[in-house]
Amino acid sequence: MPDLTLHGGLGARVDAEIEVKRSRFLCRLVRTETEDAARAAIDDARKEHWNARHHCSAFVLGPATASDQVRRSNDDGEPSGTAGRPMLEALAGRGFVDCVAVVSRYFGGTLLGAGGLVRAYSEAVLTAIDLAHTGGLVVARERRELFSLALSHADAGRIEAELRQRGVLILGTDYGREAVLHIADDDAERLAATVAQVTAGAANLELRGHEWVDVAV
After folding, report:
1. Widest pairwise Cα distance in the chain
2. Angle between helices 188-199 and 153-165 (to 10 degrees)
3. What is the DSSP letter of 75?
4. What are phi and psi of 94, to 5 degrees?
């Protein structure tokens, strides 16, 4: 399963709400990359929904293959294991990384029991994830090789368009004495052949390292 996250960079957010026996569960899913930022998002939810009874949370930071991936969850006063853990399992089960989920609960007067809470908190997160998918707001996180391609200003626009049409992921362009395209790819040989084709062999790729990048799903 690929690592997935929210499209739009840090701070991207999706909100969802479900109701179970008159209790309202409001989930916000926020893209982040550090524990401090994740806890700041939790604090923001707590401030916005100050009169909600609970603000349960879970976050996953870093790729699934990393030995130092961070996973945290908090029940915030709900019975142990009925909120944060199922929220974390919902995120991890759908392959979501670099995200924090916060579910603010407004109590509706009816006790749900342990099983009911587990289902409700999990469903709230899954509903937010489904909304993100439906809205085209999900991208994959992949480790790619980074390249730069220096071009004349006169040719840059045309060549960039042709590369994009061939599915090349272009991260951006710097304009100075030359126009320099920044490219991420997972097949250096194929990319070199494509660049040679669209530039008639007049430009050379330079390898710049590796980076985790957003890729359309």
Report:
1. 72
2. 130
3. -
4. -95, 5
Contact 76, 87 (CB under 8 A): no
Backbone angles phi, psi at 41, to 5 degrees: -65, -35
**Beta-bridge mates of residue 58:** 73, 101
Q: How far apart are CA 128 and CA 118, in angstroms?
A: 16
What domains are there in the chain, each with its CATH number? 3-136 (3.30.230.30), 140-216 (3.30.70.240)
> CA 48 to CA 56: how far, in whole Å?
14
Alpha carbon of residue 106 to chain centroid: 27
- pLDDT tens, 95-105? 999 999 999 99
Full-model pTM: 0.87
Tokens of 120: 């409700």
Q: How many angstroms separate the CA atoms of 127 and 130, rounded?
A: 5
The amino acid present at 123, given as its one-letter code, is E
Question: Which of 152, 212, 203 shows the shortest CA–CA distance to 184?
Answer: 212
Handedness of CA 26, 31, 35, 41 (dihedral sign): negative
| CA-closest candidate to residue 167, choices 184, 182, 180 | 184
Which segments of 51-170 does DSSP mark as H helices, in order?
84-93, 113-134, 153-165
* pLDDT single digits (tens) 179-189: 999 999 999 99
Q: Is 90:122 a contact under the CB 8 Å cutoff?
A: yes
How far apart CA 20 and CA 177 sit, in angstroms, is 61
Question: What pairing do the DSSP bridges indicate for beta strands 138-151 and 205-216?
Answer: antiparallel
